[in-house]
Amino acid sequence: MFIDTAKVYIKSGNGGDGAISFRREKYVPLGGPDGGDGGNGGNVIIKVDTNITTLLDFKYTKKFIAENGVNGGTSKCFGKKGDDLIVKVPMGTIVKDVETDKIMADLSHPDDFFVVARGGKGGKGNVHFTTSTRQAPNFAEPGMPGEERWINLELKLLADVGLLGFPNVGKSTLLSRVTKAKPKIANYHFTTIKPNLGVVSVNGIQPFVMADIPGIIEGASEGVGLGLQFLRHIERTRLLIHVVDISGIEGRDPIEDFKKINEELKKYSVKLWDRPQIVAANKSDMLYEEEKYLEFEKAVKEMGYDKVFKISAGTGMGIDPLMKEAARILSTIPVTDLEISEEDMYVPEEKKFTYTIRKEAIDEDCDVYIVEGSFVDRLLYSVNVNEPHSLRYFHKVLKNKGVMDDLKEHGIKDGDVVRLNDFEFEYLL
């Protein structure tokens, strides 16, 4: 089974919490705090594995979650870092963020990898919060949460040459003739329902990779038939061989077929349409009127395509010159990575703890100002509001981070209530 797209959920590990601990040795009076830092959470890394050719594994496994960091320990011991999670994908995989549909990474080389979700940072132990006036802090910093998101994986085959054409024009037969690939071949439409790759190795030419991909039909650029699957896979090819059934035994007009395929290419991508193209007039052994081929050749050349080869994939006629010309053209085209515009590229946002403030009226004399958001969750998790030193630290953070100033701008007055999740306190000037 060939699977070339997959949607999966990934989550990096949370950072471990800093420890709240105090020295308790028998002969060390007033030992002080010794809580260690928490370990960082594990990353989720997408990595190329050249032994994998499809995204089939992701049909059965949809969630990938890295290991959390371990909490800090006593005696200033650091918590263990969470292990990274390596997710292996075939070469040619593109990673997209589902929410924005932006491209995060193009993994098109054997050693490529991408950190798709970074682990949360471990929190600091209470040993870091000592001051000249706070000798025994009874609070520590929590670990940062890991990143989580849904991603799309898209496989775009890495072939030098893509075979272009309607279904049942002989693309699979041509591939089987010039490579050791064994695609399914039969005399009906849509025989090929999955891409096939083969290495062309002909005496006197440099070997190259050729792909036989599901045939395209009218409307493919809008998703009709197997068209979008076809077009996705030829995006990376440097050269196209446009295979046309010249025999007319199915009652089709080869000139019209040639025009329609190129129209679909142009609708999907002008860059793809501009790619070098060799025309292979196939099934010429079944052609009884030579004038038909000459008429086709003239029409194609008038459209600007000079490379036209009369071949028969079934008998092997004319194939060697076709392959040698393909190799020659490839030698003049440099190998380049897939072009990704700035608009399509994913730009990660800087991770920030944020909050919002809203007001609710209780009565004429008192209002409640509700502060909520990730900043609030993290702050409350890191302090013990029932402990005096911890509570003073809590109010200091609110002041230093500008929350108090924001409350003033919202019109808070003496005696109003400030609520952060389940914790409330009265505001005093």
UniProtKB/TrEMBL annotation:
The keyword Transit peptide does not apply. The keyword Hydrolase applies. It is found in: Cytoplasm. Keywords: Cytoplasm, GTP-binding, Hydrolase, Magnesium, Metal-binding, Nucleotide-binding. Residues 1-158 form the Obg domain. GO terms for biological process: ribosome biogenesis. Its cofactor is Mg(2+). Residues 345-429 form the OCT domain. GO terms for molecular function: GTP binding; GTPase activity; magnesium ion binding. Residues 159-331 form the OBG-type G domain. One of its GO terms (cellular component) is cytoplasm. It holds the Pfam family GTP1_OBG. GTP binds at residues 165-172, 190-194, 212-215, 282-285, 312-314. It is an enzyme of class 3 (hydrolase). Mg(2+) binds at S172, T192. Its EC number is 3.6.5.-. Monomer. Belongs to the TRAFAC class OBG-HflX-like GTPase superfamily. OBG GTPase family. An essential GTPase which binds GTP, GDP and possibly (p)ppGpp with moderate affinity, with high nucleotide exchange rates and a fairly low GTP hydrolysis rate. Plays a role in control of the cell cycle, stress response, ribosome biogenesis and in those bacteria that undergo differentiation, in morphogenesis control. This is GTPase Obg. The gene is obg.
